[in-house]
Amino acid sequence: MASPANIFHLGVKELRSLYRDPAMLVLIVWAFSIGIYVAARAQPEVLQDAPVAIVDQDQTPLSMRITDSLYPPHFKKFVLASSRDADLGMDNGRYSFSLEVPPDFERDVVAGKRPAVQLNVDATLVSQAFVGAGYIQSIVSGEVTDFMQRHRSVPPLPVELAPRILFNENLTQTWFVAVMELINNVTMLSIILTGAALIREREHGTIEHLLAMPLTPFEIMVSKIWSMGLVVLIAATFGLQIMVRGAVGVAISGSVPLFLLGVTLSLLATTSMGIFLGTVARSMPQFGLLIILVLLPLEVLSGSLTPRESMPALVQKIMLAAPTTHFVSLAQAILYRGAGFSVVWPQFLALLGIAISFFTAALVRFRLSIETMQS
Q1: What is the reported pTM?
Q2: Within 10 Å of residue 175's Cβ, how many Cβ atoms?
């Protein structure tokens, strides 16, 4: 029979071992603080705060309308510069774009001469350069057209489209990236911590001490699961409240306790997976290689990076057996759309079933590993 006291004290021992492992502590702190912030803010495919220099040789109302249209958040406040300064700034990397308006630009536009505006683009970041060049071209064309028509007009359409953007009205990509990074880090850290705890016992020779005590494999395994799962749960709560909601500014629509309940079920599955991998690997380098093979499909194919609907049907069906698929689904529903338990109970039920299956498989594998060591 499993003893709750034994499970508790063994778990406390795991927490003390983790406290004496500075590398793991640094990894946990980084993953749920700076790691989330960096992943949310580092978006090379999104044009944000791009530095732009304006060489306005015309100084007319039309040229001023064009320069005033390059405003945040896509661009930094423009800098009026000479042609020489703009070229030097492009060479030195101070400007990503340089827009030069020629003399007599407004007069030639009114006369219908189709004057040319020079746009220099720093293509060091290809995706940002491509998007930014398109933005600036659209802005210049729109301002010239409105100037010639003397008013801003919208071409009539046969059907009027009235878009309504829900849950993320400004289409802020950092909101999505921050939450998904938190979810991916929960999966990664829970597998690493439990697997490393088991391998640490084997490498330090303390697993033999445990086997000499009146302890069962169930007690040893559960102690590692609850202790490492508790660490990840606390870190995830900190990351959600302080980093995602506070530093990044994501608007959390749903119930945080309900989300943490989903985190707990997911942790039961992923920590069991860590125990399973810890019994397969014989050393930390082997465990690291197994982590790569497991984490990549769990994170890439779960819907946290791309929608599952865009994946092949066979991949979608296979990934239904992964806990991260249902974890990502319920997290998006709760945190983004404010869904309650009546909406996400199928994901909770699937997570519970997967967690029980993974726990059972890990326990069987762990018992076989213990028997092999004792023989």
Answers
A1: 0.77
A2: 21
Q: Give which of 124, 250, 267 is closest to 189, Cα–Cα.
A: 267
311-335 exposure pattern, b = at least 16 Cβ within 10 A, e = fewer: beeeeeeebeebbbbbbbbbbbbbb
d(CA 70, CA 135): 9
Q: Which SS3 state, helix, strand or coil, does residue 98 take?
A: strand
Domain residue extents for the chain: 4-31+171-374, 52-149
Q: How far is residue 187's CA from residue 327's CA, in Å, rounded to a whole number?
A: 10
From CA 100, how far away is CA 95, in angstroms rounded? 13
For 35-52, write each residue's pLDDT tens digit: 999 988 876 556 778 889
Phi, psi of 100 (to 5 degrees): -115, 115
Q: So what's the pLDDT on residue 37?
A: 92
Strand order in the sheet with 118-121: 79-80, 52-56, 97-101, 118-121
Element (H, E) at 134: helix 126-149
Class of CATH domain 52-149: alpha beta
Q: Please report, for the chain, how many H helices and E strands are present, in that order.
A: 15, 4
Residue 262 CA to residue 264 CA, distance in Å, equals: 5
Beta-carbon contacts of 205 under 8 Å, excluding residues fewer than 6 positions away, are: none
